């Protein structure tokens, strides 16, 4: 898995590529936790995310919980069919605002 | 973060009454739900991973808990991803044995204690009453708070909610009004764990197979030992022209030592076409047209 971090205005963008599973979810988790020390508005770009397991899903949940506690925002964009399926099946789609593209998502931030 | 109780232990405790006895209403679901609890605990401890369909072995270092490590060993030896429902079926068959280890742990942790009780005159019963109900109360309060608060719960609480929802155990934690009022919230949280969803699927399959088995029994006229005994008693009441149970001979009268032996004989032979010779003190299979050479075998 590759993780790219950028910023657009005051939205912290994390772009994920490859797979997130139990072998690498910790690096994703650490990035989020570190970013949370300073940031409160997050966009996770899943355009190149090919696969996610329960271990990866739990990081998303942890992030959402932590960001909500800071009264921040967390949005997702670019979910592929395969990854969207697991988000829909687990009901995670109900908890996240998801967008087709990064541009669309960035425009939605308050 | 380590927890005092494992998830199987928390689920097991939820399914006990105050005397430490398993709730009858929970009995047929217990094995699958506890199997799900084992898998979920292993997932939370990063020993396995799951996706939509499969359990994937990962870090196979022992957890230090006998129940979890027994199952982890099997998953490790399988070496490859396998369907969640398949693992649930396999582990649920082992729960009657794993249950003893869960009990032992709960006793060792001081949550349950052992009491020997003479329940009826012919057998002793071992009971495991709760020492203090702090742990059960803590689990229940945590789960209730997670549902009522509207916040995103910790994942450990999500998996327990998922188990009790998909295992049809909500009434152990919530009353009917609460279940009605918070049904959407409970369902939303319960969906969030994929093992819990597999528990639900396995439960439906189990319920279907139990219904089919009962229907098959009914169609084929298959009776269990108790049913055969009842049938024999009714037949003999008619033959002997007896209305009350206390007027029946010992070997047909409930509560007597001889009645117990009759049940045993039916169990061993598989038939209730039997008679008892009180003189020889022996049971025999009934031979039609041969009442017993003049002696009263009843």
Count interface residues per chain for the largest interface.
A-B, 22 and 21 residues
The secondary structure category of chain B is: mainly alpha
Order of helices and strands of chain A: EEHEHEHEH
Q: Give the N-to-C terminal Cα separation of chain B.
A: 68 Å
Can you tell me about this structure?
The complex is a heterodimer of chains A (110) and B (298). With 110 residues, chain A is of the alpha/beta class. Chain A has one domain: 2-Layer Sandwich (Transcription Regulator spoIIAA). In chain A, 40% of the residues lie in helices and 34% in strands. Chain A is built from 4 helices and 5 strands, in the order E-E-H-E-H-E-H-E-H. Chain A has helices spanning 25-36, 54-69, 81-89, 102-108, and strands at residues 2-8, 11-20, 41-52, 73-77, 97-99. In chain A, helix 3 (81-89) links the parallel strand 4 and strand 5. In chain A, helix 1 packs parallel to helix 2 (54-69). The longest helix of chain A has 16 residues, at 54-69. The termini of chain A are far apart. In chain A, 34% of the residues are buried. Chain B has 298 residues and is mostly helical. In chain B, 54% of the residues lie in helices and 9% in strands. Chain B contains 11 helices and 7 strands. A 3-stranded antiparallel β-sheet of chain B has the order 1-2-3. In chain B, strands 4-5 form a two-stranded antiparallel sheet. In chain B, helix 2 (27-44) runs antiparallel to helix 6 and helix 10 (225-240) crosses helix 11. Chain A binds chain B through residues 21-23, 51-55, 58, 61-62, 64-65, 68, 85-86, 89-92, 94-95, and chain B through 43, 46, 48-52, 56, 58-59, 151-152, 155, 158, 188, 191-195, 197.
